[in-house]
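Handout, tutorial session.
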Amino acid sequence: MGLRTNTAVWLPNQNRWQIKVQKDGVRRTFTSTKTGRTGQREANRKADAWLDEGISSTTKRCADVWAEYMISVKATGGTSNIEQVEKFGRNYILPVIGARRIGDLTTGITVKANSKEQKDCCWVVEMIMKDDVNKRIVIPDAAVTSVGDITYSNGAVGYNTTLTAVPDTSGNTHYEYITAKGA
């Protein structure tokens, strides 16, 4: 059964029942022209059927994937790094996207880009440097202040993005963690 929290409403000027529901960022409207509760149930049934279609057990919630990620962080990171990553997850990442589902790549992923202003948030950038040295940059509080072109070169994708960081209570704008391969 779908996770619908609303019910169809009668629109007297249009002589129909209508319900609006949303799934995975897509919003749809379902209607019924039958009068009485029969029409309301029909519109609700249509919405529930759409919400239920395509549901499979191959998808995971972000919170579950985060738990798996934390296992790898604990296996490769130092104590202060582990604590920092756990705090970011608990305070910034999981409250925002923890309940969202991550789809199976065989069904495809849609990325929607827009020009809406983003709120300040935590940013984590990970990279592999020369000699397989791992580098993680953690910016506790920053906002995107400019976005450039996306470039494609030699199989790599470049996102020209400028972040403006706000100093934390210690006066630091970011933290860098560098470890040798396998450390």
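The second record follows below. Compare its token runs with those of the first.
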Amino acid sequence: MDLHCLRKDFAIKCASIMRLHLFICLLCVVVLFTAGCSRSLRFVSDVDSIALADQPVGKRYLLVPGNQNVTPDELEFVEYAKYVDTILTPLGFSKAPTEQEADLAILLSYSISTPQTHEVSESIPVNGQTGVASSTTMGMIMPLGGGMASYSGNTTYAPTYGVTGYYTEVSSYTTYTRFIQVAAYDLLAYRNEKRQRQVWKTSARSTGGSNDLRLVLPYMLAAMRPYIARNTSRAIRIELEEDDPATRTLREKSPSIEPAQ
């Protein structure tokens, strides 16, 4: 094989290696980008529920706003009420055709706080030379005659590295506290005795970076569903992923508001 063929073969191999390296680099970029984009949100709710042991037998209900100055025909309430109707139906509850036929009055309340800003201080280490681990000296002795000589040498130091200090980095973030409550009252006790007898109350509280209550509320209701009309004895923390099946089913089964014509 002559020198020309050898060079040609070497160039082909180099090009193949470069293409392989380029492919690997592009693959790494795609994987990193996909991993970053596929990071899903997580919704954390603290669910608390309390209920009477001797609940009324009837489960026909009227769903009414629990917030002051909110009317039953406000679109936000209508949307949230549809979610509540959806989670109550599998539990044996049904909407009463009229107020006179209802056994329970269920009050739906919801709110979101003003933005809360939090600051976080973090100590960041500064790296640098901290000392000398060892030293090495090398030199040469040159005889000058007459019993005399000169010396010439050089000392090399091996440094050590580590943390030489810290600086403080301050960052801030904003959160909102979201709240929803569903409370049931015995209408028979109110009709007969004019007494507001609360039968059960289930609530959820969630704190996070989103101020979109319409986004977060279905996750909170999905977290509440297993504990409706039950006694949890304490607050229970529920974590749901963005693609939570129960929340997706809740959205699919809740009829949407008809668009304006």
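Points raised in discussion: Helices lie at 3-37, 75-88, 187-193, 213-224, 245-253.
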